[in-house]
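The aim of this short unit is practical: by the end, you should be able to scan a pair of folded records and say something sensible about each. We start with the first protein, listed as its amino acid sequence and then its structure tokens.
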Amino acid sequence: MIGLLKKIRLWLSRKENIVIIIGAVFAITAIATPFTILVKTGWNISYDQFDKLGVVGDFFGGTTVGLLSLASIIFVIAAIVMQKEELALQREEVRKTREEYEVTNQTMKKQQFENTFFNMLKVF
């Protein structure tokens, strides 16, 4: 149980996860809003009311589009934050690789010089 709480705290400590939760809340709210309004007004959909379904569709579209657009913007922001962190990690990895390459290059130059030097001694 304690391990699970630590994992949840670690997951929530990342900025993009909080933004994803906020976006999910907006998406769920967008989907639930028209249904909630229909239930609260007591409007029962039946086969006799098919001529009114066009109005219901407009109502659903009107109430959900704004919130779903907001949720999608929030998800894009979360993706940008995640990409920013990944790029920072990638830059660090490239820097370490470059340092390792420089060490390897220096070692190879030294080995090449030693090899040439000792070959010249053999010939001499």
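Turning to the second protein, read its sequence before its tokens, just as you did above.
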Amino acid sequence: MKKKKEDKKIQALPHHVVLYLLNQFFSNQLQIKVKYQSKDKLTEVYGFVSEFINNQVRIKSTDKIYLISIEQIINIS
């Protein structure tokens, strides 16, 4: 019996959940791991949410600052 291959498409978190989680990490200044869709690849970033600008979030890692469109975010942990 063959196992079905898992669907490769990653189910993104709903927009309001992403906003809520970003806000929680920001308020509590907790380290965040954000997975987002950049062009055609998935990128992971670790750091702290430093601010919100329009529809983007700024994440400060140890060596770099990332500005990520909230719509591109797929997962947060």
